[in-house]
Amino acid sequence: MFKLTLRNLLDKKIRFVLTTSTVVIGVMFVVGVFVLTDSIRTSFDELAGDIEAGVDLTVRSPLDIGDELDRVAVPQDIAEIAETVPGVASVDGRVVARNTVISDGEGEPILPNGPPTLGFSWFPTQFFIIDGHQPEKPDQFATDATTASDNDLVVGDVYTVSGPTDQREFTLSGIFNFGDPEENKSIAGTTMAAFELTAAQDFLDKPDSFNELSVVVQAGADPAVVQEALDAAVGDDFEVVSQQIKIEETQSDFNAFISIFGNVLLAFALIAVFVSAFIINNTFQIILGQRVRELGLLRALGATGRQVSRSVLGEAAMVGVFSTVVGIFLGLGLARVLRSLLKAGGFSLPDGPIELQARTIIFAVAVGMGVTVLSSIAPARRARGISPMAALSDSVRLTKSGLGRRIKVGATMVALGWLLLGLGLFAGLGTQQLLLSVSSGGILIFIGTTVLSPAFATQISRILGWPIQRLFGVPGRLARENAARSPRRTSSTAGALMIGLALVSMAGVVGQSIKKTFVDTLDNSVQADYFVRSTAAGFDPTTGFPAEVEQLVNEVDDVDLVVGYHFGLNSISINGSTKNVFTTDFSAGTDHMDPDVVAGSITNGDPLGSILLNEDPAEDLFVGVGDTVVVQFPDGAVVGLEVAAIYADSAIFDNYVIDNALWNEHFNRPELLFLTASISGFSDDLPEEQQVALLASSAEAIRNVTDEFPTVSVENRVEFRQSQQAQLDSFLITITVFLTLALFIALIGIANTLALSVFERTREIGLLRAVGLTRRQLRRSVRWEAAIVSVFGAILGVGLGLAFGVAAAIAIPDTAVNTVAVPWGSLAIYVVVAAVAGLIAAIIPARRAARMNVLEAIATE
Amino acid sequence: MPSTTTTGIETDVAARAIGATKFYGSGDTEVRALDGVTAEFERGHFSAIMGPSGSGKSTLMHCLAGLDTLTDGRVFIGDTDLSTLSERNLTLLRRDKIGFVFQAFNLVPTLTALENITLPMDLAGRDPDQEWLDRVIDAVGLADRTSHRPSELSGGQQQRVAVARALASNPEIIFADEPTGNLDSTTGAEILDFMRDAVDNLGQTIVMVTHDPVAASHADRAVFLVDGKIVDEMMEPTAEMVLDEMKLLSRR
Ligand SMILES: Nc1ncnc2c1ncn2[C@@H]1O[C@H](COP(=O)(O)OP(=O)(O)OP(=O)(O)O)[C@@H](O)[C@H]1O
Ligand SMILES: [Mg+2]
Predict the structure, then answer these.
(1) d(Cα A218, Cα A213) in Å, to the nearest integer?
(2) Across the interface, which of A474, A763, A770 has its CB nearest the CB of B122?
(3) CB A673: neighbour CB atoms within 10 A?
(4) What is the number of the ligand 1 atom nearest to the C-alpha of B59?
């Protein structure tokens, strides 16, 4: 029996390739993602060690909440005290800042999309000069090798660098490798600008102070002993940490980054696996259908039902083993490809060996074997029921489970799925449970729909095929009937596509709703005439431009009011939980931004002693106007703030707002997220020409100032809205592109199923060709069959995606989404794209069908 | 008198093979399926190709019908030399000028009986001649079955649909490869009578491959193939004559 199973596999090579290909793809993605993240993690761990090498102890201020760069600066006198501690060989102050943007030779700012733009004081243990020399004068800087070569920066040339408070011209004195003398290990497109220490203190806004002190102990001294002495010497306001702790911190910073990145990739890999599971299950069903006669013969010759079902399982197991092995090897390749793709996309990662851990192999085996063996259990059970009569009868069919049962089971699964989904979205669960409940709900709905859909697949295929038949005559008729003839196959083939499209459509609905909400908010709450923001694209709330711009814009004649804004992600603590904080000028009231105040007044707020709250957190905190909220800042200060106003619209202001004065007191980040300006004498009541003329002249006046700053762009209300929408769009496109992966796999599934169907219909095709079907007509009928199946899947997918999207849009807090908007146009395009994709997927099977030799086809048993 | 065309081929011959030779394989495994067959099949006649199993009957039919190509020699349908046609033109020729009936699996399962019958015309995008179609359907006695799918028809009914399809486009010639091989003798006789009728009353030309002497007795003429060569032929054969001949041949 085993020999027969093996022979079966080897004889039908094409079938074998088709079966394994989908499993291989699933395994490949999982392995690729694991290997990539493991390899990155290892090289980051090494990098962390390299970076911290040569520094035994670090002196800095403690930090409970907020960003690493929110630590209070260490003043010069602490450095002097540290130098006197016994056992200390040297103390070097270090300065680091974000938003230090170099402009290239053309004056264009070098803005990586996402990764930080860092400024440093020169630090010899981390920077290794490869060209020129280290910065020695106040007007010199050095940059990392990748930034220099990607942007053609030349040693000796002068470049504009924009810092937290202002921008200046610097001469590039040298180019360095970061982290390793041999190789630049700067991460993922981060740009680095290093300055001589006093220049850095001045330019990066750390007057007479440092972010931290790097201490080297004398040879022979015990670092632990020195640490204790140092700790006592610097006092309670500062802490001393060992090299080991520093390395671990750096590693965990990197790890957090890798985990996000890895989890996103893993999510896509798992979607890929889920989609391939659909396809492989389908494939096994089809193959079993093709083997009914042969298995019937075996039964007639005396094989038991068990032997037959075991042979089916055995075949699946062999497919699983083979695919797993191949998938692992291809996954190793994929990891390399992904890495170079990331590199090509400006997201370079430190090079390192490709790492295959035992866990990856275990996971790969679980996926590869699990998917195949699980997928073959149902077919194997059905194989057991094949009667010996199957060998004799001419038109053999497997007994299908009754439609009634199918509807019951499918409907139950769908209902249960929605229940889980609803629970996840609306029951206020923790993140982990939410994800679990939502994803299992989604999976149940997908499977349930696939179980259910054969009930109407035939009718829908006929309807979809009707215009095709009208258009193409017999080939169209054949396409239509072939799509309709086996509803189960059509459904499960469409199922894979359904999943991909459901995800894409859901993203579309949620994205469109976010966009709509955002635009509505802009229209309703934004009163300012101009917006000045960083040209850096993306959603990074830590980007910013020099604070100096605010002053300069304010000096423009036409401008009567300028308001700056800062944002701190998880930067304050209220009642022990960290919150985001937004800032404005209370004195401006609602002149530029109107968050729909429901109680109190913004202008009444004391800049240093008040806070504005959104109504939701106000309710949660049981506070009203006049009550006090206790807020902790990153510098350790704990301040009681009086609630000056409560507002309803959180889309721009988020939930907690303080005045800029209070921000500057507790945060080390003068750079602005954006600022708004209004023009004197402008009003919506003016005649239109006058409005236009005013806007034009004032825009020019403002631009005259900001043009000096390459990292800053000025937009009027319309432009601002457009650019914000464009940002959202590009984010959505990125997600859609990733999800297209699932579509791609689904297309392989369609090609796969079609190839098997064509194979199954060999004789029929031979007959059609004999009586005069031309090759072209044959190809056409196979292609349009695929199109019908694809559109069927697309309709199911878009429908589900729409439902998911609406549910998600309702569940997402009003801050981000307060209305449901459906991108009907895009959804329609998805269906068309699916049809086209189906046509493309069918190219190869159609060609194979057309190439078939008529005589051999007729003679096929 | 037969008219002649510029090719010099007489047009009352519906199909013709000249020195038709077909090898399969090469070297030691070479099989001579056809070994210089020269034969003519006249218009308006019902011809039978007979011979023992493996004698090359099917091969000859396939080559005459443009389903397969010769190693050497030439075949004509009417005055068209098939070796000069491209794959596409061969397909179109089959569609427009040739009808087929196979031993089994004649019908497309997803199409109704009527759709199967009109398939070649639908493929050509031609409207069937309704009067002729009605006559054909009537003649096969399927008028009340036209909307059924093949799976809802008996084997004999399916075969009748196949014959109707072959006739419906009014082709120049119909090739049938053991059309009754899968049927019981009564049903088989029905089909054969019907084919006879098509030749006599509808003016069709039929070439049928068979090794059933009874089937051959319905034909006007029987050609005997052995080892890829024509060894004998017989006009107005009867079952007994054919049986005797077959016995003779198998003893050689
Ligand atoms: N595709 C092929 N490859 C190799 N040899 C073939 C092929 N097709 C037929 N033959 C050989 O050619 C010879 C003639 O075959 P053919 O099918 O024409 O016989 P037949 O007279 O139709 O027999 P039967 O009555 O059994 O159908 C046989 O010896 C057969 O083995
Ligand atoms: Mg034969």
Answers:
(1) 16
(2) A474
(3) 20
(4) 18
Which residues of chain A neighbour B111 with C-beta distances below 8 Å? Answer: 477-478, 481
Is residue B22 in some structural domain? no
**Residue B96 with chain A: CB contacts under 8 Å:** 772
Protein residue with its CA nearest to atom 18 in ligand 1 = B56
CA B22 – ligand 2 centroid, Å: 15
Put simply, whether A266 touches B (Cβ < 8 Å) is no
ipTM for the assembly: 0.76
The residues in A 417-476 lying below 8 A from B, measured between CB atoms, are: 473-474
CB B199 within 8 A of CB B44: yes
Helix (H) or strand (E) holding A323: helix A305-344
User: Residue B6 has what pLDDT?
Assistant: 39
> Nearest by CB to B151, which of A395, A477, A775?
A395
| CATH number for position B170 | 3.40.50.300
Place of tokens 């029929």: A764
Number of C-beta neighbours around residue B44 at 10 A = 14
Q: Does any domain span residue B7?
A: no
> For chain B, how many structural domains are there in total?
1
Range list of H helices, A345-430: 358-384, 403-426
Q: How high is the pLDDT of residue B47?
A: 93
Residues of chain B found within 8 Å of residue A477, distances taken between Cβ atoms: 111, 115, 122
pLDDT digits (tens, 9 = 90+) for A498-547: 888 898 898 889 888 888 887 887 777 788 888 888 877 555 677 788 88
- DSSP category for residue A391: G
Residue B4 lies in a domain: no
The pLDDT value given to residue B4? 38
Nearest CA to ligand 1 atom 11: B33
d(CA A25, CA A752): 13
Burial (0-12, 13-18, 19+ Cβ within 10 Å), A25: buried
Q: Which residue of A has its CA nearest to B100?
A: A771
CB A186 within 8 A of CB A144: yes
- Put simply, whether A696 touches B (Cβ < 8 Å) is no
The reply to whether B18 falls in a domain is no
The two tokens of residue A359 are: 């866990």
In single-letter form, the type of residue at position A644 comes to A
- Rounded to the nearest 10 degrees, the angle between the axes of helix A474-485 and helix A454-472 is 180
**The tokens 């077919």 sit on which residue?**
A379
Q: Residue B63's closest chain A neighbor by CA?
A: A855
Hey, what are A313's tokens? Answer: 């399982």
As a whole number of Å, the CA-based R_g of chain A is 33
